[in-house]
Specification:
alpha+beta; Heat Shock Protein 90; five-stranded antiparallel β-sheet
């Protein structure tokens, strides 16, 4: 498999996580990532990235998905350069980074067009890839 890439503009707002999750899941399934448990983890990662970008990042600009073999990286770009930081969880949130760290092989933050890009590398897909036709 060669490297696959997609970039998606996501409108900001309360429906952004749900729309991004649905679109990324359809994309990954079409690329052959069909393990349900693995896709559920991808859904959670997308939801966290998008929700945090909408809530803390000044609005979401884009989601990018890159796949090579069984390895997938999902990123969210927003318009603020303020990096995510771990905080003590409370009634308003604070669970996101701990969740990402448990679900992902790695994550990080890069500068991106005056804002930032938060990326998450998922654990390798556990099953042979079967492209949907």
């Amino acid at each position: 498999m060669s490297e696959l890439r997609a970039r998606l503009d996501v409108p900001s707002g309360v429906d952004a996580p749900r729309g991004a999750r649905k679109t990324v899941r359809q994309l990954l399934t079409a690329w052959g990532f069909t393990d349900g448990d693995w896709l559920d983890i991808a859904d959670l990662v997308v939801s966290e990235l998008v929700a945090n970008a909408v809530r803390h990042g000044g609005g979401l600009l884009e989601i990018a998905v890159q796949a090579h073999e069984t390895q997938v990286t999902i990123s969210a770009a927003d318009s603020t350069s303020v990096s995510p930081r771990r905080r003590t969880p409370d009634d308003t949130g604070g669970y996101g980074l701990a969740l990402i760290e448990q679900l992902a092989a790695a994550w990080g933050v890069d500068d991106y067009e005056g804002g930032k890009l938060v990326w998450v590398r998922l654990w390798s897909h556990p099953a042979p890839l079967r492209p949907v036709t």
